[in-house]
Amino acid sequence: MYILGFDIGGTKCAVITAEWDGQEIKLLKKDKCATDHTIGAYEMIDKMIAMADGILDKKPDKIGISCGGPLDSKKGIIMCPPNLPKWDNIEIVKKLEDYYGVSAYLQNDANACALAEWKFGAGKGFENMVFLTFGTGMGAGLILNGKLYEGTNGNAGEVGHIRMAQSGPIGYGKAGSFEGFCSGGGIARLGVQLAHERIANGEYPLYLQKGMNVSDVTAKSIAEAAKRGDSVAKEVYRISGEYLGKGLSILIDILNPEAIVIGSIFERDGELLLKPMKEQIEKEALSISARVCKILPAKLGNSIGDLAAIAAIFM
User: Max Cα separation, the chain?
Assistant: First the structure.
């Protein structure tokens, strides 16, 4: 199967071609460009179509589209995502199907990433799998009984909105949320909070030294400080790992998955999170369910965006 993928983001867009033989995926060609917010959505789609025509070797058999939500995957409509302010009720599936004469499939980026890890990555071979983004935000894609589960109106998997504590870092617009404790932005905010507490006592953590701005603090810089032995940085990741374990316990109890695959920060810095995460799962989750659930880092790395666009056809 010869597949064309469209990866649409607020910063950049890409088009990808790939071949799927039923077992293995082979990425072939790619072109990308910055997302132009000065033009309308359909003009941007036309720009992407021109890019796609430049890399296609033949007519595609199917087209996959990965884009941030909200969107209606069943109707093929992008419904004004926050990072695409001019994309209001855009019928992208119809436009691409009319142009190429083949079926196109639209999926939100978390679900598309879940499909990619399920088909091509760490989740391959599992019937029941949860994929967690754990990057800029905390979202989930659910593979249940061998199929993507989208919910009643496509909003299943918004686990980042779950309140984990009455107070804490803000994520998904809610203080103390799963995303607040377990996302890039949330870890950075937690790091700034703990740093200020220590600075008041004259102690500067490695990731926020004198002369540095709080805007310089990121989940990555805190992780680097933790690996160098900084006690404040290690405490930030201990807290995040603890809440990750609590959140995973909820998913294990409710969904009874075979595997939970976690991307981005966990894929990169999982060793800082594992111990407190495992302690909380042992404490909080039903042991009969926890025993059959593997917690795995995602495998697709920097290729996940490309493969997510391709995997959207498997919805």
Answer: 66
pLDDT in tens, 182-199: 999 999 999 999 999 999
Q: Are 42 and 90 in contact (CB under 8 A)?
A: yes
Residue whose C-alpha is closest to residue 298's, from 176, 170, 118, 168: 118
**Taking the complete model, does pTM exceed 0.85, yes or no?**
yes
What's the CA gap between 164 and 210, in Å, rounded?
33
Evaluated on CA atoms 275, 196, 265, 64, the torsion sign reads: positive
User: What pLDDT, on the 0 to 100 scale, is given for residue 136?
Assistant: 86
Calpha distance 114→276 (Å, rounded): 25
3-state SS, 117-174, equals: HHHHCCCCCCCCEEEECCCCCCCEEEEECCEEECCCCCCCCCHHHCECCCCCCEECCE
Tokens of 170: 């803000």
The CA distance from 33 to 232, in Å, is 39
d(CA 144, CA 142): 6
- pLDDT single digits (tens) 208-227: 998 899 999 999 999 999 99
Q: How far is CA 120 from the centre of its chain?
A: 16
Nearest to 191 by CA among 168, 164, 222, 148: 222
Strand order in 294-297's β-sheet? 147-149, 140-144, 129-132, 259-262, 294-297
Q: How far is CA 153 from the centre of its chain?
A: 19
Tokens describing residue 243: 């809440």
Which amino acid is it at 211?
Answer: G
